[in-house]
Amino acid sequence: MRIVDTLAQALACLWPFGLVPVAPGTAGSAVAALLAPWLFLPLPYDARVGVLAVVYLLGSWAAGRTERILGRTDPGRVVIDELVGQWVTYLPFAAPGPGELLLGFFLFRVFDILKPWPVRSSERWFAGGFGIMVDDVLAGAYAALCLGGWTLLTA
Description:
Order of helices and strands: HHHHHHH
Number of helices: 7
Shape: globular
Distance between the termini: 53 Å
Strand content: under 5%
Number of strands: 0
Helix content: over 70%
Structural class: mainly alpha
Largest sheet: none
């Protein structure tokens, strides 16, 4: 296997987390939620948007390449999309507390699993890695709206 293929799969799977035998998407989201307070949330808003753009583009490449290597559409081990979706959930919040982080994790998982309109149909908007990634961005946007509503109601 070429080194580029190995790197693509490692990135797409968030190294070992996409390889867990049960609920790899939840594992990927949990890792994203745990890393957010150190790698994502301390950044200024504009930098967070830039990080999401870079992760989206690199993740799309890695997910698409992994999809081709494995010969399967949207393989379960690809969890870079969960990282991007989870971080989209946290994007509008400068310093969420542990409760908000946990609620954001839960909300993202709900929207990612249930896939309300247009989340499910968005998977078909693009081929390959872009299609894998876009539905999680939309699920993250739904989760962010709900988390924002919750924080307003409880403030």
